[in-house]
Amino acid sequence: MTQGTRRPRAVRMSVELPLWRALTGYRILTLAYALGLFFLNYHRYAHPPGAALYMGVLTLWMLLTWNRVTAPERCTRPFLIADLAIALCGVLLSAVVDTPARIAGGAATLPSIWTGGAVLGLAIKGGWRWAAAGSTLVAAANLVERGALARDTVHNVLLVWVSSVAIGYIVEVARASERTLARALQIEAATRERERLARDIHDSVLQVLAMVQRRGAALGGEAAELGRMAGEQEIALRTLVAGGLLPPRRSAEQLAEDAELVRSVHLAPQPPAGPCDLRALLTPHEGAGVSLAAPGTPVLLEAAAAAELAAAVGAALDNVAQHAGEGARAWILLEDEPAEVIVTVRDDGPGIAEGRLADAEREGRMGVALSIRGRLRDLGGSADVVSVPGQGTEVELRVPRGSGVGQ
């Protein structure tokens, strides 16, 4: 693996965490509200000490368990059952400690709207089914406490039931979406890793096999048989890299045609750690048929990004050697811009016929798709191929400053 390569980091997400935090705040605020109602109506209760005893138990319960609903791992099923039981006891106890007149007038129960927090905890933890069960028990307790189907009681019961079930259903949908997104991120990471491996295979193994096939055919004899086997393995491996979309083709004519599309292996020099001068990585490409134009000052780029960019330039020059003909010339232009680095590879060959790149990708020839565009995409840059039949081909590679592999 190229030095400095960074793998995509796993992103830990949770759609539930904000809901648990909101529930914690709700429980604390509604306890304060219930205590305020209790103190304002203390002398109106039929049995004030009994009401005070329950409110003391409720306050102590909250002091001991306020942080149990801050995270799903701490909010266990036994805790939720106990929380709901305390709320139900408070609702039913209101019928004993309060006066019949206040109850008939629609006075709030001892836990008041704090009861909703117990039902919401069930909704967030277990979904709409738990919410439906909890809100049904709360509804039954309120009806028993009131002793009649009063309009305001039915209204409050339906409000709690519908809202808790809706929240529970939303939580279930959010969880399913979160799992789907996590799976999609895993697939994306696996796909990017596969493309990286495919680039390495294209730039090394496939080219070596093609060279063996071509040299074996030229030497004849036993070498020809070895070359034929190497050509078959090249096609099989190319099919695997392309995702199995291309069935193996084993005729001698097709193997020869495939081999002509691959140049002998080219290994890009490895850069040192830290920023390096891109000119040093592009200079080895310069030769009799390739000219390099670069700034007179160093063009610094992160080592990993520079290595990938140089490899993409090498892949573009491989395509020139394979398709432009023996007498074709190529020019490399390196531009050092404030926000990005631009490398242009141009040749005077016959150009690329319209639709040929798409056909090559479908056939498993991934040179442009992976070795060039795939590398630039991983760097956060772009690769544009402009070709006019009879007028040559131009490949423009753009890499933003500060980019690195895996960004």
Automatic annotation (TrEMBL):
GO molecular function, one term: protein dimerization activity
InterPro entries assigned: DUF5931, HATPase_C_sf, HATPase_dom, Sensor_HK_TwoCompSys, Sig_transdc_His_kin_sub3_dim/P
Signal peptide (from-to): none
Membrane-spanning parts: 20-40, 46-66, 78-97, 103-124
Ranges of residues in domain Histidine kinase/HSP90-like ATPase: 304-403
Keyword DNA repair: no
One Pfam family of this chain: HATPase_c
Keywords: Kinase, Membrane, Transferase, Transmembrane, Transmembrane helix, Two-component regulatory system
Cellular component annotations (GO), alphabetically ordered: membrane
NCBIfam families: HK_morpho_MacS (NF047322)
Name the record gives this protein: Signal transduction histidine kinase
